[in-house]
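Slide 14.
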Amino acid sequence: MRPLRKIVVLGANGAMGSGSGAVFASAGIPTVFLARTLEKAEAGRSRAEQLAKGKVAPRSIGVATYDDMARVIGEADLVFEAVSEDLGVKRQVFALVDRVRAAGTIVATVSSGLSIAALCADRSEDLRRHFLGVHLFNPPTVIPGCELIAHRETDEEVVAVMRNVLEATFGRVVVECADTPAFAGNRIGFKLLNEVAQLAGEHGVAYMDQLLGSHTGRALAPLATIDLVGWDVHKAIVENLYTNTRDEAHACFALPAYVQRGIDTGHLGRKTRDKGGFFRVEGKGPDAEHFVLDPATGGYRSLVEHMPPMPALVERMKAAIRTGHYPAALDVLCRAAGKEAEILRRVMLGYISYALGRVGEVVSRARDVDRIMGFGFNWAPPSVLADAIGARRTITLLEQAKLDVPHVLVEAAEKNVHLFDEPEVDRGRFFFAA
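Slide 15: predicted structure.
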């Protein structure tokens, strides 16, 4: 395999295109941004230079339009596609790429969950052998997690080369995934996110985000995360999973009706600041007013006036974390009684069960799930939670909750060993008491 001397990014004016290009260019590899117009390519370059924070020399990223595709792609060693997350649109792009690429050029898609095999179906044999998924997480200049997805025709040497380049050159934490819907990270992560959105319809938005805040091992509460991602993107991911998977969590991928109603009226989260999503902000700075969605009516209420009281369970968990004892916080969760404890255990145990249950189906090892959730989503990896609770105790709680018990958890209990296999990672880094 020839070395990567030139990379071309398609769709470089988008968030993932410019962010990915910033990572490539920061590593010193000549990179060219392609977009429909030079203005859009220039906008992508400007955004990439800002994201790189001085690691990319001004104007070191080339720009061109799709009219220049034959010349630019013909010189590329890697073509990185980051156009809109639409199967038809992406397939049209790869048909064009196939006509102008040189034999042996690697072609990668940043798709967050579409079938890799379907994206390159009917293309030339050489393209299919050199085609794979490289799912970077947004923003890639900040988040190192990366999923590498081959399909059944991808050459093994191409996979090995890309893994080495992603790790050694671009500083990625790479997890190899099977070509399954939404791969590992989004399948696991959006199962929890959508489950919380479903529960918010019954218990309230502020209540659920308060219950599943930073003390549960995540940098941002679930519904605030959906607002950040965008309701439209969330819908696309969960509907893909609802349509194309039939596992034990199938019902958790059903988009709540109130979310669909919000999308229909233009409520997409942070990207629609005036309309909002689960939360809405009016004004700026210290005088800004914060509002929270009422799922029943679709209206908004003052967050200050309708913030539910902090559950005692949450206070006790945070108190334990403040003293540096996150296992004690999880012990509080396991022992607590009442509605809050039941809801929180349901979500947290469901996360452990579903995530570790993908071992053998989507990834090879528990470590793979842990890495993509820890370094892609910035959530406490499921093995960290299971180790803190204790493997045998986790199994008992899963059985009581009528949730599947993953085989890797049974093996850990039988051998009396910890599951989390990252000796240099501080497990407590995932828990905050904000």
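Speaker note: The mean pLDDT is 95.
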